[in-house]
């Protein structure tokens, strides 16, 4: 017999599987296809334990699906554009290409050491011109369809990464990557019109995503149903958006965002100095700070008045920073009687407060504190044509109809979602395929002139301008339309563009006629199961849903969603329950673990550590459990038998094996990986006992070993393959069919035995019908009531009447 030594066979099998092309996805296969994809990694240089968690555990499931008879595509690539490569270039003068490809090469070897069933023939990196060429192609298609457009707007400027960011990349006012407080800058930038799909993106009917992700996306899209109302001002009509048009008669002033384009014209000479100072101060604050709840309201009167569309009264026009230029129309009608912020503002500046909605049966009431402001549903009062109607968010339909009939309001739905800002002032990304011509204007680069490759001779200086702009010649080109001298756009695309459609590329990774070959992608898309971290809930996951819908409308796919199902794994924390990080010194290195325990043990421990969708803290001693377990599994197959000393029946073994098979099958289906490991460990205990019983060598025994070997294959692929071969099997364990449960093994026949002590009835016990005499007597003695009489006494005779009775004679 030998000891379990994973290092003696893990590399051997990894090499053999690769040589046999075991995981090459066969497009021509007649089996049903299954596309399992885990979000591809950024080539940072090293796979950490979180990567293992994200890749190995779904790998076990992909392997299981393959044994279930699916032709499984489990591909891998690299999300290779982005700032770390560029920052390495700035710091150490390394070409980002070289840095990236070296990292990829190393990470590929790490992936192989995990024993994943990745089809490496489909690998690609998004920084390769063969890939990003299609980003540019898509950009041109979007441009032609009005889905890509350039506009001047206030953007989020990250002062550390020296680039603009999309709204989705700003978390609590800080850059998602750098953590720096973002500044607001007015810039002309390219946007993708994701808002065109806002309504469709709220429909999750064709994508099975966790509730949490659906909620985050729904809130991010932020649909509001309401109305637009026009107010006449000295400089033309001003439209406001309101979700409470039922309170129109309670509007006693208007408030414009400080950045609103009409502010200058509305400001009177007396007010100008004060207004200008306020606008400047507001510009320096983040939207988050400006909207913070409980913050003291500030604002300035413009000096101008608007005409209320119903009462024709003159109401003052103010500016205040709690109104955002980026939402609705950038102006509001203020209803201090029924909106807390407007109330706070009105009380501070002595503006009129009117009651227009009253709780049913209530008395006339005007609030004097913010807590008293009535924001609920009630009856409309003091509102002329609306009097007596129901007021409140739930009842605005009829109110809008009434107001619309007299031409005062128009029904309007607004979304918080903004168009996706895609221009970045950085180098390591896809050049935007647009040329600016003095005579033809903005011209897209013709498809047959793509890709526009990134130049390699640039200076990497974080200047706030794209290195492409500072390059001596790159931007100089000729206009594709008139042939005259023209300039290229010098920005690159947000790297979330790359990951928005990569899942399609795996279907035909080297296709040269388009981003993908529809004939190959159609049978695969949408992805059957997409897995990855929750941190992408409103970035990658929203962008890729948008991209699929846009691609569908261009005619490239029939899918409306990129993934039929999505599941998120949790996070592996450090032993201290904190996020793993170098600065905390709590990082676990998977390479070290593989060197010490072998990949199968690491895979098992990661599956076992916690419910996969929750994650949990690492535990250095915890990994010994799976390590010991695999040692026991090994000796189960290869150690010498130590004479029959246990009493286990064939029926018991068959029951245990098939009950485990049923559980493991169900748990793989529902992605409950930790319980799979637990069930396999428990079965090991039964089998170790059975090996020392008369069951050893029977047909039930060899069936048990075979089924156990097959059950081990997805989670611990190397040791399963080694056992398969050392026990004289043909082929690979990984191309075997997943076994089916023999239901008859699960039917447990039992019989009832009467138990007497000194001839007196003390208990009835249930035992398996085929239980041996020793087993029946053992069960009888364990019975509580029997034990009570036997305790401390000497049993000098055990009488067993088969299938009927036990009598224990004591004195
Ligand atoms: C009058 C009113 C009365 C309002 C009332 C609310 C309560 P949601 O639900 O988030 O869409 N609003 C509109 N544009 C704004 C902007 N650019 N900045 C700040 N606030 C803005 O919110 C819609 C409501 O937020 C709108 O309805 C408007 O105030 C305000 F008792 O109009 B309401
Ligand atoms: Zn031209």
From TrEMBL:
Motif ('HIGH' region): 41-51
Enzyme class: ligase
Protein name: Leucine--tRNA ligase
Localization, UniProt: Cytoplasm
Keyword Protein biosynthesis in record: yes
E.C. number: 6.1.1.4
CDD domains attached to this UniProt entry: Anticodon_Ia_Leu_BEm, LeuRS_core
Short sequence motif named 'KMSKS' region, residue ranges: 579-583
Highest rank taxon of the organism: Bacteria
The Leucyl-tRNA synthetase editing domain, residue ranges: 219-394
GO CC terms in record: cytosol
Family: Belongs to the class-I aminoacyl-tRNA synthetase family.
Ranges of residues in domain Aminoacyl-tRNA synthetase class Ia: 12-203, 417-607
Gene source species: Deinococcus yavapaiensis KR-236
InterPro entries according to UniProt: aa-tRNA-synth_Ia, Leu-tRNA-ligase, Leu_tRNA-synth_edit, M/V/L/I-tRNA-synth_anticd-bd, Rossmann-like_a/b/a_fold, tRNAsynth_Ia_anticodon-bd, Val/Leu/Ile-tRNA-synth_edit
Reactions accelerated catalytically: tRNA(Leu) + L-leucine + ATP = L-leucyl-tRNA(Leu) + AMP + diphosphate
């Amino acid at each position: 017999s030998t000891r379990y030594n994973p290092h003696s066979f893990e590399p051997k099998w990894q090499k053999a599987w690769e040589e046999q092309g075991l995981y090459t996805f066969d497009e021509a296969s007649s089996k049903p296809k299954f596309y399992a994809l885990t979000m591809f990694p950024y080539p940072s240089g090293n796979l950490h334990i979180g990567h293992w968690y994200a890749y190995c555990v779904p790998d076990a499931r992909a392997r299981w699906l393959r044994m279930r008879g699916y032709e499984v595509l489990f591909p891998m690539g690299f999300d290779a554009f982005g700032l770390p490569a560029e920052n390495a270039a700035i710091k150490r003068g390394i070409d980002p290409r070289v840095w990236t490809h070296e990292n990829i090469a190393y990470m590929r070897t790490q992936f192989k050491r995990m024993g994943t069933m990745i089809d490496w023939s489909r690998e690609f990196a998004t920084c390769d011109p063969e890939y990003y060429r299609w980003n540019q192609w898509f950009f041109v298609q979007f441009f032609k369809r009005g889905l890509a457009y350039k506009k001047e707007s206030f953007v989020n400027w990250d002062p550390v990464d020296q680039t603009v960011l999309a709204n989705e990349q700003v978390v609590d006012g800080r850059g998602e990557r750098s953590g720096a407080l973002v500044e607001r800058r007015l810039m002309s930038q390219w946007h993708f019109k994701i808002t065109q799909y806002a309504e469709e993106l709220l429909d999750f009917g064709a994508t099975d995503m966790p509730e949490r992700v659906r909620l985050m996306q729904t809130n991010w899209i932020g649909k509001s149903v309401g109305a637009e109302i026009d107010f006449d001002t000295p400089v033309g009509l001003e439209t406001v958006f309101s979700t409470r048009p039922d309170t129109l008669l309670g509007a006693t002033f208007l408030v414009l965002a400080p950045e609103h384009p009409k502010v200058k014209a509305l400001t009177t000479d007396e007010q100008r100095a004060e207004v200008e100072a306020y606008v400047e101060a507001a510009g320096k604050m983040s939207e988050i700070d400006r909207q913070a709840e409980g913050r003291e309201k500030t604002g300035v009167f413009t000096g101008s008045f608007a005409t209320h569309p119903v009462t024709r009264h003159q109401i003052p026009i103010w500016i205040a920073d709690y109104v955002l230029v980026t939402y609705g129309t950038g102006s509001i009608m203020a209803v201090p009687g029924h909106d807390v912020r407007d109330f706070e503002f009105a009380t501070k500046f002595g503006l009129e407060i009117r009651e227009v909605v009253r709780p049913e049966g209530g008395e006339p009431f005007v609030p004097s504190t913010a807590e008293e402001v009535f924001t609920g549903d009630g009856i409309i009062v003091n509102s002329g044509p609306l009097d007596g109607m129901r007021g409140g968010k739930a009842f605005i339909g009829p109110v809008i109809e009434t107001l619309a009939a007299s031409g005062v309001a128009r029904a309007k739905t607004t979304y918080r979602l903004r168009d996706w800002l895609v221009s970045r002032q950085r180098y390591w990304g896809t050049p935007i395929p647009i040329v600016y011509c003095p005579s033809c204007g903005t011209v897209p680069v013709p498809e047959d002139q793509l890709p526009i490759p990134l130049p390699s001779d640039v200076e990497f200086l974080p200047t706030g301008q794209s290195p492409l702009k500072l390059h001596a010649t790159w931007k100089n080109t000729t206009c594709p339309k008139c042939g005259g001298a023209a300039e290229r756009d010098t920005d690159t695309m947000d790297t979330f563009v790359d990951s928005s459609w990569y899942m399609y590329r795996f279907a035909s990774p080297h296709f040269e006629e388009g981003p993908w070959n529809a004939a190959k992608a159609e049978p695969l898309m949408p992805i059957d199961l997409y897995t990855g971290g929750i941190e992408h809930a409103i970035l990658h996951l929203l962008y890729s849903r948008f991209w699929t819908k846009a691609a569908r409308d261009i005619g490239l796919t029939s899918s409306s969603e990129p993934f039929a199902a999505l599941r998120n794994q949790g996070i592996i924390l450090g032993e201290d329950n904190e996020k793993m990080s170098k600065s905390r010194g709590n990082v676990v290195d998977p390479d070290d673990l593989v060197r010490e325990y072998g990949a199968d043990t690491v895979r098992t421990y990661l599956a076992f550590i916690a419910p996969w969708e929750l994650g949990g803290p690492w535990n250095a001693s915890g990994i010994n459990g799976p390590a010991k377990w695999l040692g026991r599994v090994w000796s189960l197959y290869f150690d010498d038998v130590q004479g029959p000393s246990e009493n286990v029946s064939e029926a018991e073994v068959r029951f245990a094996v098939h009950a485990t098979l049923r559980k493991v099958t169900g748990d793989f289906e529902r992605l409950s990986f930790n319980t799979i490991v637990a069930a396999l460990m428990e079965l090991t205990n039964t089998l170790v006992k059975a090996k020392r019983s008369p069951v050893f060598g029977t047909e039930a025994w060899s069936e048990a070993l075979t089924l156990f070997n097959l059950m081990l294959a997805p989670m611990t692929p190397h040791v399963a393959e080694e056992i398969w071969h050392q026990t004289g099997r043909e082929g690979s364990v990984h191309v075997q069919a997943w076994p089916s449960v023999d239901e008859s093994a699960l039917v447990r026949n039992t019989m009832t035995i009467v138990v007497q002590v000194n001839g007196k009835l003390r208990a009835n016990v249930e035992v398996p019908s085929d239980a041996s005499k020793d087993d029946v007597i053992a069960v009888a003695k364990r019975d509580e009531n029997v034990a009570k009489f036997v305790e401390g006494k000497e049993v000098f005779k055990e009488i067993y009447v088969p299938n009927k009775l036990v009598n224990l004679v004591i004195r």
